[in-house]
Design a protein that fits this description.
The chain has 171 residues and is an alpha+beta fold. The protein has a single domain, classed as 3-Layer(aba) Sandwich (GIY-YIG endonuclease). It contains six helices and four strands. It has a four-stranded antiparallel beta sheet. Helix 1 packs across helix 6, helix 3 packs across helix 5 and helix 4 crosses helix 5. The mean pLDDT is 86.
Length: 171
């Protein structure tokens, strides 16, 4: 006897919806660079976005506020510029360990190599092109937004294992 009976219709509907949103996302022309326009022309709405360099998608993210999140990517605050921190950690060979004393703030304050790598990463991100699609968080309590982020990261090869910047590892 099956303890759980999955509803294939619900799964199919979610997958079809994610595919439609993905098609809109990838068919949208890149409209602006991360730091070219202030405030960002992206709406202050939840959604999924792609950052690209040339024709190569590099990062897929999701957020409750596209405008604010894109501003965070160009922020000089290490607590907000998480993609720049990720790139700087890689460049400075300072992987995240999630141990006390290894925070990005501590590295920024005490490690000149990390600080320089962080500034180079911010400059790099500021030249990336943006595509986005609005995905209300209340759709299945954010499930479709999360599905679209993962689907896009896999389809666009933005996972770290593919040379991109996305990582879905647990910590």
């Amino acid at each position: 006897m099956k303890e759980f009976a999955p509803d294939a219709r619900l799964v199919r509907a979610a997958v079809d919806d994610v595919k439609r949103k993905f098609d809109r996302l990838v068919n949208m022309a890149p409209t602006f660079r991360v730091s070219a326009v202030r405030p960002s022309p992206a709406p202050a709405k939840p959604g999924v976005y792609v950052l690209s360099e040339g024709k190569r998608a590099r990062y897929v993210g999701r957020t409750g506020d596209l405008r604010a999140r894109l501003a965070d990517h160009r922020s000089s605050a290490v607590e907000r510029a998480t993609l720049a921190v990720k790139l700087a950690r890689t460049a400075a060979r300072k992987p995240a360990t999630y141990r006390r004393g290894t925070s990005a703030r501590k590295l920024y304050d005490n490690d000149p190599a990390f600080r320089a790598a962080f500034h180079r990463a911010r400059a790099r991100i500021s030249t990336m092109w943006v595509r986005y699609v609005v995905v209300p968080e209340d759709e299945d309590d954010g499930v479709r937004q999360a599905l679209l982020e993962i689907y896009a990261a896999v389809a666009l090869r933005t996972l770290q294992s593919d040379g991109g910047f996305n990582s879905f590892t647990n910590h």
